[in-house]
Amino acid sequence: MKIYKTKDYDEMSRKAAHIIASQVILNPDCVLGLATGSTPVGTYKNLIKWYEEGDLDFSQITSCNLDEYRGLSGDNDQSYRYFMNHNLFDSVNIRKECTFVPDGLNEDSDAACREYEEIIRRAGGIDLQLLGLGHNGHIGFNEPAEDFPKTTHCVDLTESTIQANKRFFENEADVPRQAYTMGIGTIMSAKKILVVVSGADKAEILNEVINGPVTPKVPASILQLHPDVTIVADEAALSKV
Ligand code: GLP
Fold first, then answer.
1. What is the 206 CA–ligand 1 centroid distance (Å)?
2. Using CB atoms within 10 A as the burial measure, which of 62, 95, 102, 216 is most buried?
3. What pLDDT was estimated at residue 161?
4. Is the confidence at residue 160, as pLDDT, over 90?
């Protein structure tokens, strides 16, 4: 694992954006695995800025997002599709038909998950996967479990995730209880992985991810076994490592 320590959130965002930008410049038709949550927002802002300045071209890029709430349509402002449109896709020249997010409205979860794996396979696999980190060590929506789920699947969100994500909803009852997420196997199949982490509230779990045992109880700990992982985290997040 390569670990870059940055002064603060802004520097973390710039550094992460540089890594994604270099991927886009070197491989203009690459497949980016993208993430939601508050942490990558600054990274996306930098990518938009560099696109506006003429330094980046997303016209041949394909993107596959990690996860989506089950039951939310892309028009719902809490859906991850909406988040991606709003925070990145609407502001750069990526072709919308080349941006993929699991289909939250497909009630047939087996079909939804199977189709998503097929989309990733047809795209040729993920070249660079961006990840945030949940407070309980989740990546995508792979919650702490007894084993590592291999492929895209439907998950019941844990109470801690519902609590962490309720800030985005009008009230807690509106937070969906289930989501479709890439599996740990899907994520580990990406050629490169970039993890962004910010803030003292992630310090404990980030230390477990980096230095603790590899266990499905801390899903992100599996990243220790991936050959090309870069963690970009600020001082606060790395304060217990
Ligand atoms: C959600 C997302 C994750 C994300 C996590 C952390 O649960 N499914 O992909 O990494 O939140 O979010 P934040 O960056 O807001 O702390």
1. 14
2. 102
3. 86
4. no
